[in-house]
Amino acid sequence: MTYVRDAWYVAGWTPDLPRDAPSAISILGEPVVLWWADGVLRAHEDRCLHRLAPLSSGRCEGASLRCMYHGLLYDAEGLCIEIPGQDKIPDGARIRSYPVVDRHSWAWVWMGDPALADPALIPPAVGFDDPDYILGRGFLDYAAEARLINDNLLDFSHLTYVHAASFQATGVFADSLPKITPLERGIRVERWVTDAPGLPQRGGSGPADVWSTYDFLIPGVLLMTGGNFPVGTAQASNFGPPDFALVEGGTTFTSQAVTPTGDGTARYFFSWGPHRNHGDEAMRDALMEVAAMAFAEDKAMIEGQQRIIDATPDPRIMPTVHDKGVTIFNRLVERLAAA
Question: Closest Cα to residue 201, out of 279, 293, 316?
């Protein structure tokens, strides 16, 4: 499937990357090694020049990374600086270096032209150092294309059916349409659910008008927030964005990212938690239990979908009215990939 190369892909949670050892991930089918060179995050191709051994099985030595097969040593820029038993190092002995940024508690790796790697294009996620939210985190490895996970996140009408048990989603998600706004590098999805059970919050919650909004950005990053408002707020707001001064609680934030790892495989990163004014660590843990159940439901459905696609000659889909966001985003992907 088609993916944008000139984009920042999530390669891992930086708090989970060991400071004294390299880590491995595949992005767009390319093996990448992540490591800290004297405290600075680096990303290189996970492939030693000598015998193509994985450098992720190597050893960090200050600002250098040593291959633990035959001992070649690389500096923080990927240049080979030592070959045991050999004085002369061949000209151009260098492994590929990827631009990488540690931001929002994620390691972002640029897979395209390094000259175009603009950190301003990193989606504005929320990390664990944000003082306003109490977040949990996790990831799932999928035996499915990242595109299918993106499509799932772009169309929440599936909540009514896939997540009837976990999120206890009502029929409104399948029976009504959200507001969708194209963005320069994605789309924005906004929705009111009126006079409904509110989002979880400290002290419990009764009926509320629940507002939620998320941006889904290139290459596949979802940033979502929402909250509980007094019944009648949706109508008073003309079903547009509310005045958050009226929020009664239940405010949560989730950052999610989909990284294609190879042909038919992907890694799905997610964080979720309450605003400090409306929750605590116990609520975060409860939300993460719900997330574990819900995201397992998604995974089972999407991997099943992938198996059917693989078994179908010339697979084609029949779009519905709910596919507006999917269509806009995938056309954007195709346009950027072609460029």
Answer: 279
Q: Kindly report, residue by residue over 106-154, the tens digit of the pLDDT.
A: 999 999 999 999 999 999 999 999 999 999 999 999 999 999 999 999 9
- Residue 30: closest CA among 42, 45, 17: 45
List, for residues 20-60, the tens digit of each pLDDT value. 999 999 999 999 999 999 999 999 999 999 999 999 999 99
Cis peptide before 114 (omega within 30 of 0): no
- Measure the CA–CA gap between 165 and 155, rounded to whole angstroms: 18
HSE toward the beta carbon, residue 216, CA cutoff 13 A: 25
- 8 A C-beta contact, residue 167 and residue 294: yes
The residue ranges of DSSP E strands in the chain, in sequence order, are: 8-13, 23-27, 30-37, 40-45, 59-61, 64-66, 73-75, 80-82, 100-103, 106-110, 136-142, 179-183, 186-197, 207-217, 221-229, 249-262, 265-274
Residue 237 CA to residue 202 CA, distance in Å, equals: 25
Cβ within 8 Å of residue 164, ≥6 positions away: none
Cβ pair 293, 287 in contact under 8 A: no
DSSP summary character for residue 16 = G
Predicted TM-score (pTM) of this structure: 0.95
d(CA 124, CA 104) in angstroms, rounded, equals: 8
